[in-house]
Amino acid sequence: MKTPFIVIDGLDGSGKTTQLKLLCERAEREGKKFILTREPGGAPLSEALRELFKSELGLKASALTQLLMVTASRRNCMEEAVWPFLAQGITVFSDRCDSSTLAYQVYAKNAPELEEEFWRLRKLVFGEYPPTTYIFLDVLPRVARNRVVGDDTRGEISHFDAAPLKFYERVYEGFRAFENHPTVKMYSVNGARCREEIQEDIYRIVKAECGW
């Protein structure tokens, strides 16, 4: 059995960051071995690419340029911060991954011509070792955007956060397209409940996938 490589993903405002924090805290309390990474980022070169991607120049880049930037970051992250741990039998949790790329760089950017290329690049980057499991925090686009806009603790609102509702709707459509692809194993978790209920569902999935 492959060592679990589990991605937690969702729209901005889905509660993903909170749920990852709760997941890691619980796994630590139970003495489980794991590492946490993020995308874009997770390794020195990948983090440098993340900063470039999030810069004004990166945000103005075309859909194809953004797709190639995050794909390069992903490959470096796999080589340096994911595969070495999986080879040791250590579970990896990732805050976003290629699921977000399809949602944000293809669907949200209105670039359907890139969808086939996305799946081709995915196979090139991951080879025989793609994520084993994806967990999608399912929150409706309007709810997610209202959470983001009304959250005073987020500090500076990013380009993605401040996007109109139509943007969030396209992102949501992209996640659904990813979930329906035959090569993907994705669990959808209702993210509109209290955080404790959501966490119970997530941890149940993680325990089953990891054999904990």
Automatic annotation (TrEMBL):
Residues 8-202 form the Thymidylate kinase-like domain. It catalyses: dTMP + ATP = dTDP + ADP. ATP binds at G10, L11, D12, G13, S14, G15, K16, T17. Pfam families: Thymidylate_kin. Its EC number is 2.7.4.9. The keyword Kinase applies. Keywords: ATP-binding, Kinase, Nucleotide biosynthesis, Nucleotide-binding, Transferase. SUPFAM superfamilies: P-loop containing nucleoside triphosphate hydrolases. One of its GO terms (cellular component) is cytosol. HAMAP family: Thymidylate_kinase (MF_00165). Belongs to the thymidylate kinase family. This is Thymidylate kinase. It comes from Candidatus Yonathbacteria bacterium RIFCSPHIGHO2_02_FULL_44_14.
